[in-house]
Write a structure and sequence with these properties.
Layout: E1 9-15, H1 20-30, E2 37-44, H2 50-57, E3 62-64, H3 72-85, E4 90-93, H4 102-107, E5 112-116, H5 128-135, E6 139-146, E7 156-163, H6 170-193, E8 197-200, E9 203-206
Parallel strand pairs: 1-2, 1-4, 2-3, 4-5
Antiparallel strand pairs: 5-6, 6-7, 8-9
Bound molecules: 5-O-phosphono-beta-D-ribofuranosylamine.
5-O-phosphono-beta-D-ribofuranosylamine (GRF) binds next to helix 1 and strand 5.
């Protein structure tokens, strides 16, 4: 069991769809593995996101702000209002499929974490598995990183890797990488929330006691 620091960080998750990474965080938290993190809210930008069912099941408050109904600015203003009301300390993008403006990112500078299904800086963007396979890469994996103003370019917190097999498809690769994501994201989040990450420009290191 991990040790609790004095201050528990309030975490909001932003998701657009299935929400299996959101579920991984919930499960890890319920197992007592994230004593320094409290999941306080889900923001879904799509009313059909399965992540909403997961929030309901685990009694986590959620807000649906449909991105297709608002301009990017309006969407972000509404989202920021919710996050500020809930006094959120850290935001996790868990399959959140929208690009955020620099205004939003700078409101939570170095306080937004994303999970991406490739070994960044290789294969950023929305088609990481497809791009990995068509490039012919032999190793892939996933990356947890802080979000900066670029697309999947922020400082890397943790990565995990695996082999890309012959005849791999987008689907098989995604299925192989997903369990790594589910393990890595809660670990990185707990390190962040327990203030065990030292962020020095692009370099993030884990502070060991
Ligand atoms: C994951 O592969 C994540 O790395 C990427 O989007 C996918 C979301 O899956 N950013 P889920 O919604 O967490 O199941």
């Amino acid at each position: 069991m991990l040790q609790k620091n004095n201050e528990i960080m309030k975490v909001a998750v932003m998701a657009s769809g299935r929400g299996s990474n959101f579920q991984a965080i919930i499960d890890s938290s319920e197992r007592g593995e994230m004593p320094n993190a409290q999941i306080v809210h889900l923001i879904a930008d799509n009313k059909d996101a399965y992540a909403i069912q997961r929030a309901s099941k685990h009694k986590i408050d959620y807000t649906v702000i449909e991105s297709k109904k608002y301009s990017r600015e309006d969407f972000e203003v509404r989202t920021l209002k919710v996050l500020q009301n809930k006094k959120v300390d850290v935001i996790v993008l868990a399959g959140f499929m929208r690009i955020l403006t620099s205004k939003f990112i700078n409101s939570y500078k170095n306080k937004i974490i994303n999970i991406h299904p490739s070994l960044l800086p290789s294969f950023p963007g929305a088609h990481a598995h497809r791009d990995t396979i068509s490039y012919g890469a032999k190793i892939s994996g996933c990356t947890v990183h802080l979000v900066d103003e670029g697309v999947d370019t922020g400082p890397i917190i943790m990565q995990a890797s695996l082999q890309v097999d012959e005849n791999e498809t987008e689907e098989t690769l995604s299925q192989k990488i997903l369990p790594l994501e589910h393990e890595l994201l809660p670990r990185a989040l707990e390190l962040y929330c327990s203030k065990k990450l030292k962020i020095d420009g692009r370099n993030v290191s884990i502070i060991t006691d």
